[in-house]
Specification:
Number of domains of chain A: 1
Number of helices of chain B: 15
Order of helices and strands of chain A: HHEHEHEHEHEEHEHHEHHHHEHHEEH
Mean pLDDT of chain B: 91
Number of strands of chain A: 11
CATH superfamily of chain A: Amidase signature (AS) domain
Radius of gyration of chain B: 29 Å
Shape of chain B: elongated
Number of helices of chain A: 16
Distance between the termini of chain A: 24 Å
Shape of chain A: globular
Oligomer: heterodimer
CATH class of chain A: Alpha Beta
Largest sheet of chain B: 9 strands, mixed
Strand order of the largest sheet of chain B: 2-5-6-9-1-10-11-12-13
Strand order of the largest sheet of chain A: 1-3-2-4-6-5-10-11-9-7-8
Structural class of chain B: alpha+beta
Low-confidence stretches of chain A: none
Strand content of chain B: 15-25%
Distance between the termini of chain B: 61 Å
Number of domains of chain B: 3
Structural class of chain A: alpha/beta
Low-confidence stretches of chain B: 1-6
CATH topology of chain A: Amidase signature (AS) enzymes
Mean pLDDT of chain A: 96
Chain lengths: 488, 484
């Protein structure tokens, strides 16, 4: 089975913004071209839950008018963008790929949506995801799976599979995803695009429908590192509506891209590159080592570093994230919005609505989380997991005493076949083994495409950095991207 | 606390039994906006008008802490002698339709205020376990049936109250009588009003009291099964609910049964508590730290600012007024609770007789001192004590002064109240003796009871003849001197 991937088809974010700003292309023509490509291939990919074609055209026309009037439309003028369908968009259905939100239209925009719009970007649709972002393949969607544009019988990864696929298929040059345990980086790796999980607090979560509140972060998918940097400059920064939003600033990331890695200390996480954690494919490991060599060739020093507690990341995550989810998802009770299935009394209505509205993976995690917080078990499960979290953060801090950035795989394998892992949740959970630790520590990390595996499918390399270390992460990513282009 | 159980026994309980009661008091903080959003914190608006994505708990919304609410919480905490500590908001998870997120953001193992106390006017100290910050819920109205949720056709929910900041003050089970419980709540209310952090109106629900009640044999220090009583809407209901519940417990224990741990509702009309939900199938709240909010860590400067901002509290005002008036603090608590202590002190400072000042304020000025100022009040009291005005006249002048703010001289002379001289009264009495010789005889030689009766008769006749202008004390004196 072949694919329809063509990341380049969408053009780059900065090229489009420049062309539209300079009047070389109209925003309407840009949007029309992208909608045409979506028309051609969306049937095969199913990246979107909803394509907002009419609204996108109207927004584009308004942007063209403003440009004609000599207004500054912003750094993302005319750039089509796809938004993961767990971020609130005013008046536009927001489903989390769940039946429970049936019919709900948020009365407000997420901060990131607001910031993209005021930078001139144009939303063309809401992308598919694993229901409530719980999954690693986008197969847990109530509206059917998304297909990997590179090979349509493969998964795009998840949970932000729709957003990753939209960029890989050339539907949009930019999309937003959310990453709770790897939900941006793993699909970025599987779809051969750049995906960024920023420092916890670097991008506002206001309007992101919560899964694991202490882990969730919004970040971009793009075809180039520079486009992600440009997007981060737009969506990042303090938001008074999010109490966990950082008041610190790491400055413009566009400005650091050409700094190089000369003298930078790069550490390969030994647990993820040397067999301590099982199940990481040889072809993936080969690409991570190749990335280390490329950085060394560019002037970095490379060493191995141990982050011993990272091996407990997966079990700790599957206590913390479901615990928070069990509470975050309580509000979907049929009382105020979304699906309501009537019952003889309020409690029965709650139960009937939730039983009909949630899919099996969401139910599994609500039960896991409820159990982990229950009286008598809370200390042993949720409490121990929080301790592991502290240990992981401390181990990372020790590693960053000797290294500026760390390298690891983004995903243990290339894209697997649809249905291959749906029968066994644990096997599916292992997809996030390399990405979860930086969600637990809050530190930034991103996946940069770096070649293909034995099956010819994309492989991403994960770059990790200390808290608010986005600049050094991006300057490393830019070097890797260049090395990849040189090699190909 | 010292064991004063013997002299702090609930008088309505049978001999040998002791009340053990702790109170949970919820105070709505009167901040301009709600606890986690910018919606107005107002009572009485049209339903569902003071709402936004955050207080409606819409998907994707996030809370942001109201700094004023935290300051109010710390001020109240310090005023009841709590230690203010770094604290953490926590989620209390349970399903309820008027709670938009199906969890309440509250505090759990790290509350803002811990380990305080409150001294009642009689000196009894009640320990306070904690005073924590939490959000209020919306309000349900059940339509159809008997108005209760079980029989309603449908329910309407008003979310205006959802997210209003509350402080929950939890006492230790130190309360031993219903009167102590009432005094504790009154004292707490006085402190809240002095701090101006809430209007603390029990009828409007801005101050709500739940009572945890159990009983035990005197001399025992065990804590027996308790019941939590809700739906208490006034201080007098609080007293009656506790008395009823404690006696119910004694009845159960003495007939070989035992109370079940449960929530009970006070039925005002029936004068009894009724079973609510049983704690045995009660929810497991699955508390965990609220990940959407950062810990509250007051700086040394914050704490100092809080301490500096605390005004003189009712207990201090009470001692000051009691000292000035030469009475026990309990004698002046009504005035302090009413906010009339300052007026009383100013009047006493102006030289008025403290006893008469307290009597008038307590009995005749319960509705307020109106336009009258303390200096004028002091002048009035001096006229009364000096015999220039009878007590009846004084009351009449007082009522006028409260409305008009005039001086007592002006009011008294307008009303024609002039002190009667003794000679005039002598003449009147002579006339009365001539008209009522047998009554005078009984006054002079009758037994004590009869003489007293006749004293009343002649006093009344003199008052009638003088249209109330005679001073009662002077008349009494006159009668005694004329008695052979």
């Amino acid at each position: 089975m072949s694919g329809v991937a063509s990341p380049a088809a969408a053009g780059s974010v900065s090229d489009i913004a420049n062309a539209v700003t300079n009047g070389e292309r109209s925003a309407v023509s840009v949007v029309d071209a992208h909608l045409a490509r979506i028309d051609d291939h969306e049937g095969a990919v199913h990246a979107f839950n909803l394509v907002t074609a009419d609204a996108a055209r109207a927004t584009a026309a308004a942007i063209d008018e403003r440009l004609a009037a000599g207004e500054d439309v912003g750094p993302l003028a005319g750039v089509p963008v796809a938004i993961k369908d767990n971020m609130c968009t005013r008046g536009v259905p927001t489903t989390c790929s769940s039946k429970i939100l049936d019919g709900w239209r948020p009365p407000y925009d997420a901060t990131v949506v607001e910031r993209l719009a005021s930078a001139g970007a144009i939303m063309v649709g809401k992308t598919n995801l694993d229901e409530f972002a719980m999954g690693s393949s986008t197969e847990n969607s109530a509206f059917g799976p998304t297909h990997n544009p590179w090979q349509l019988d493969r998964v795009p990864g998840g949970s932000s599979g729709g957003s990753a696929a939209a960029v890989a298929a050339g539907f949009t040059p930019l999309s937003l995803g959310s990453d709770t345990g790897g939900s941006i980086r793993q699909p970025a790796s599987l779809c051969g695009v750049v995906g960024v999980k920023p420092t916890y607090g670097a991008v506002s979560r206001y309007g992101l429908i919560a899964f694991g509140s202490s882990l969730d972060q919004i970040g971009p998918f793009t075809t180039t590192v520079a486009d992600s940097a440009l997007t981060m400059d737009v969506i990042g920064g303090h938001d008074p509506r999010d109490a966990t939003s950082s008041t610190e600033s790491f400055g413009s990331l566009v400005d650091v891209l050409d700094r190089g890695v000369d003298g930078l200390r790069v550490g390969l996480i030994s647990e993820m590159t040397g067999g301590v954690i099982d199940g990481i494919a040889e072809d993936v490991l080969a690409r991570v080592r190749a990335a280390a060599e490329a950085l060394e060739a560019a002037g970095a020093t490379v060493g191995e570093v141990s982050v011993p507690s990272s091996v407990y990341g997966l079990p700790a995550y599957y206590m913390v994230a479901p615990a928070e989810a069990s509470s975050n998802l309580a509000r979907f009770d049929g009382v105020r919005y979304g699906l309501r299935v009537d019952g003889p009394n309020t409690a029965a209505m709650h139960t009937a609505s939730r039983t009909a509205g949630f899919g099996p993976e969401v139910k599994r995690r609500i039960m896991l989380g409820t159990y982990a917080l229950s009286a008598g078990y809370r200390d042993a499960y949720y409490g121990s997991a929080q301790k592991v979290r502290t240990l992981i953060t401390q181990d990372f801090d020790r590693a960053y005493a000797d290294f500026d950035v760390l390298l690891a795989p983004s995903s243990p394998t290339t894209a697997f076949e649809l249905g291959a892992k749906t029968a066994d949740p644990l096997t599916m959970y292992l997809n996030d083994v390399c990405t979860i630790p930086s969600n637990l520590s809050g530190q930034p990390s991103m996946s940069v495409p770096f070649g293909v595996g034995d099956d010819g499918l994309p492989i991403g390399v994960q770059i990790l950095a200390p808290l608010m270390g986005e600049p050094v992460m991006f300057q490393t990513a830019a070097v890797l991207e260049n090395a990849q282009e040189d090699a190909s | 606390m010292t064991d004063t159980a013997t002299d702090r026994r609930e008088p309505t309980l049978p001999d040998g039994w002791e009340l053990v009661c702790g109170l949970e008091v919820h105070v709505e903080l009167s901040t301009a906006t709600k606890l986690f959003c910018g919606c107005p914190n107002e009572f009485g608006s049209e339903p569902n008008t003071n709402v936004c994505p955050t207080c409606l708990g819409l998907p994707g919304s996030l809370p942001v802490m109201n700094a004023d609410a935290v300051t109010s919480a710390m001020r109240l905490g310090r005023a009841i002698n709590c230690t203010v500590k770094p604290s953490v908001m926590a989620r209390k998870n349970y399903f309820y339709p008027d709670m938009p997120k199906d969890f309440q953001t509250s505090q759990y193992d790290q509350p803002t205020n811990e380990n305080g106390w409150l001294d009642l006017p009689d000196g009894t100290r009640i320990e306070v376990e904690r005073a924590h910050i939490e959000e209020d819920t919306g309000k349900s109205t059940h339509v159809g049936g008997d108005g209760r949720i079980t029989s309603a056709e449908y329910s309407l929910i008003d979310y205006n109250r959802a997210g209003v900041p509350l402080l929950e003050i939890v006492s230790q089970p130190d309360i031993r009588t219903a009167e102590e419980a009432k005094a504790y709540v009154a004292e707490l209310r006085g402190i809240v009003l002095a701090l101006d952090v809430s209007d603390a109106r029990m009828e409007e629900g801005s101050m709500r009291v739940d009572a945890n009640v159990s009983v035990r044999p005197i001399g025992s220090d065990e804590l027996r099964t308790r019941c939590e009583i809700k739906n208490i809407n006034s201080l007098s209901s609080l007293g009656r609910a506790i008395v009823h519940e404690a006696n119910r417990h004694v009845d159960l224990w003495t007939t070989g049964e035992r109370p079940m741990q449960e929530t009970r509702h006070w039925d005002e009309e029936a004068g009894r508590t009724r079973s609510g939900r049983s704690k045995e199938d009660a929810e497991d709240y699955r508390y965990f730290p609220e990940p959407d909010l950062t810990p509250l860590i007051p700086t040394a400067a914050d704490l100092e600012a809080v301490d500096v901002s605390i005004p003189e509290l009712p207990s201090a005002v009470r001692s000051r007024l009691a000292d000035a008036a030469g009475v026990a603090p309990t004698e002046v608590s009504v005035l302090v609770d009413r906010g009339q202590a300052g007026f009383a002190l100013d009047t006493i400072d102006a030289g008025a007789d403290p006893t008469r000042v307290l009597v008038h304020l307590t009995n005749n000025l319960a509705d307020g001192t109106g336009e009258m100022d303390p200096a004028a009040f002091a002048a009035l009291v001096s006229m009364e004590v000096g015999g220039e005005l009878s007590s009846t006249q004084t009351k009449e002048v007082l009522a006028d002064m409260v409305v008009t703010g005039r001086t007592p001289d002006a009011v008294a002379s307008e009303k024609g109240f002039e002190a009667m001289d003794t000679g005039e009264l002598d003449g009147i009495l002579d006339g009365l003796i001539a008209d009522h010789p047998s009554e005078w005889e009984r006054f002079c030689s009758g037994d004590d009871g009869d003489a007293k009766k006749m004293s009343g008769f002649f006093t009344g006749q003199i008052m009638k003849a003088t249209r109330g202008q005679a001073d009662g004390k002077v008349v009494a004196q006159l009668l005694n001197t004329r008695k052979p």
